[in-house]
Amino acid sequence: MGNFWNNIQLYFQFLTRVPINKNLNCEEKNFRNGIFAFVIVGGFLGIINYGILLIFKNTLPSIVIAGFLVLIPIMLTGGMQMDGIGDTCDGFFAFKEGGKERRIEIMKDSNVGTFAVIAIIWDMGMKLVLLNELIVMHKYWGVFMYMVLSRLGVMFSAKIAVRAKEHGTGNLYIENCTGKGIAIAVIITCGLATICGALVETVIIIPVILFVVWIFNSYCNKKIGGQTGDTLGATNEICELVALIVMVALAL
User: Contact at 8 Å (CB) between 235 and 154?
Assistant: First the structure.
């Protein structure tokens, strides 16, 4: 049981800015055995968003609430996923020559390029619109579940990915994402969806996310020969948008 809580807290330390000021066991087996905690972290972020919605749904316009729902998770995660999609778009689209090594070098550069700015603005804008639609349609479960589903998508991606770099934070997940971990994460996801009364919608969304993850993984293989921490962050953002789009489509 000690290792169980250690591993969950380890993922919170790595994936969020939640202040867990503890020295935890941080070996590969801890990442491997706790990989399912991706969806638990997603559930935590979803609960925060759902709480914000409940507090303000009768006092603020839906578009303002949606703005908070976009911003708060970025603050809680330190913007890691936003950084990932920005760096990925800079590396993939801003340079046409030099091959894999040059693209990865651009992705590591701390400077922000035009494509990064475009990607981040578009990503946040789309989320604002889609979350507003869910609030207007009273599909409050979606405000919670899209966070869980996107992290499940990252796990799918890590499972089928190969390393684009010899060293990097992303390798921790790529090398330690197991079929058992994914199975546990799927069970947790479906359990949460059942509590929310949205199991059918979730069962529809998961295969769509799988398909999109497979396409993006293939694109990463073509561009840089695999995946990195940045592309896994980009995967999270893509899966969030896919989940929200399908939720809104199913609700229409």
Answer: yes
Classify residue 16: in a domain, yes or no. no
Spatial CA neighbour of 50 closest among 193, 161, 147:
147
Which domain range does residue 85 map to? Answer: 34-251
Contacts of 223 (CB under 8 A, 6+ apart): 91, 92, 100, 103
- Give the position of tokens 């972290």: 41
Answer yes or no: are the C-beta atoms of 82 and 237 closer than 8 Å: yes
> For 166-209, how does the pLDDT look when each residue is reduced to its tens digit (9 = 90+)?
888 889 899 999 999 999 999 999 999 999 999 999 999 999 99
What DSSP string runs through 16-81? -----------SHHHHHHTTTHHHHHHHHHHHHHHHHHHHHTTTS-HHHHHHHHHHHHHHHHTTHH
Q: What pLDDT digit, counting tens, does each position of 84-130 carry?
A: 999 999 888 876 666 788 888 888 877 788 899 999 999 999 999 99
Q: Which helix (H) or strand (E) holds 135?
A: helix 114-136
20 domain-assigned? no
Residues forming beta bridges with residue 227, ordered by sequence position? 163
- C-alpha 22/C-alpha 13 separation (Å) is 9
In this structure, is residue 236 part of a structural domain? yes
Residue 176 lies in a domain: yes
Number of domains the chain contains: 1
Supply the mean pLDDT for the chain.
92
How far apart are alpha carbons 234 and 209 in whole angstroms? 13
